[in-house]
Amino acid sequence: xxxxxxxxxxxxxxxxxxxxxxxxxxxxxxxxxxxxxxxxxxxxxxxxxxxxxxxxxxxxxxxxxxxxxxxxxxxxxxxxxxxxxxxxxxxxxxxxxxxxxxxxxxxxxxxxxxxxxxxxxxxxxxxxxxxxxxxxxxxxxxxxxxxxxxxxxxxxxxxxxxxxxxxxxxxxxxx
Length: 175
Known about the structure:
The chain is mainly alpha-helical. Helix content is 45%, strand content 3%. The protein is built from five helices and two strands, in the order H-H-H-H-H-E-E. The chain has helices at residues 50-74, 79-95, 100-103, 117-135, 145-157; strands at 160-162, 168-170. It has a two-stranded antiparallel sheet. Helix 1 packs antiparallel against helix 2 (79-95). Residues 101-106 have low confidence and may be disordered.
């Protein structure tokens, strides 16, 4: 037995007496160094990738065009007529400014699946923007900014003064 660790004798303990160190014990770190700047700790909205959104929009258009083509082929329509109708549908869907006609559900975030992260992010941004406008929150609002402004006012507006016993004390101001 070394360094007075463990049992003095393993007899009667039901163990072999072999001592292992506790690997699950986490020691507190003394340094308060953070490799990340404090700005990165704020919540940032995930920005959707515009290229992926456009690709999904075009894909939805092609799915609708293919469905029309398949339906017309089942009805045994001539190939020239099929091409004309599918091209007309494709032009109509591409000319629409926003992809709401393509989706056709108009449910916003509720109509999306979990794997559609860019569409979800876009819907979340639109929802947050509607909420911000409804509540009248400024665009340049920063969370916790009130406390920062209050601290700055305290630092700038209250000069230090000496009190009666010679020590330094903050000058009291009326609010």
